[in-house]
Specification:
It is a single chain. With about 180 residues, the protein is α+β, with helices and mostly antiparallel strands. It is about 45% helix and about 25% strand. It holds the Pfam family cNMP_binding. InterPro entries: cNMP-bd_dom, cNMP-bd_dom_sf, RmlC-like_jellyroll. This is cAMP-binding domain of CRP or a regulatory subunit of cAMP-dependent protein kinases.
Length: about 180
């Protein structure tokens, strides 16, 4: 697959951009697949003037507002850098050409299905966690399964991601630090 990806390097826009740079605005149609070489991004939506973080992305990850990108629909969320980042943008028309080429490869369909299944499993797990787990359990799960987020992401973004206020997140962290967490 790398040889195919490299073939499309001339069509990619390499951006070396500062923190808080929007790569996609909520309500616009996604035209690019994004690959992160360096830095971190988050996706969020606006809920009555309050940003609600949906997901975080880091080095060597790709993303897009998939439904928007595939179906030419307005994106339900914004994608923005959280720290200075180097990203590559590949326009939709080139992604479609790349997919067409790759679809002829014998292992491509299985690889694509595995990547899709992995993403769906991750998002399903998060959805179930929001229904089943307490806020404290969600934070502990984040801390145990994805500690790089806790280390690299601002507390107010983590609070938004967990669906708590920054004050509540501070209480959760204090409780855990004291060893008084009963989850």
């Amino acid at each position: 697959m790398n040889s195919y990806w490299e073939r499309y390097l001339p069509y990619q826009k390499r951006l070396d951009i500062p923190a808080k740079t929007n790569l996609l605005d909520e309500g616009t149609i996604s035209q690019y697949a994004i690959y992160i070489e360096k830095g971190s991004l988050r996706s969020y939506f606006n809920n009555n003037g309050e940003e609600k973080t949906v997901q975080f992305f880091f080095e060597e990850e790709g993303l897009s507002s998939l439904d928007s990108f595939v179906n030419n629909l307005p994106s339900p969320f914004t994608i923005v850098t959280m720290e200075p980042s180097i990203v590559y943008l590949l326009h939709r028309k080139h992604v479609l050409l790349l997919m067409d080429e790759l679809s002829k490869e014998t292992d491509f369909l299985m690889m694509f299905m595995k990547i899709t299944a992995s993403r769906l499993t991750h998002y399903s797990g998060e959805f179930i966690s929001f229904i089943r787990d307490s806020r404290e359990q969600r934070y502990l799960r984040l801390l145990n399964e994805r500690p790089h987020i806790v280390q690299r992401v601002s507390q107010h973004y983590i609070a938004s991601y967990l669906g708590v206020s920054t004050v509540h997140l501070s209480r959760i962290k204090s409780k855990i630090a004291k060893g008084n967490a009963h989850f």
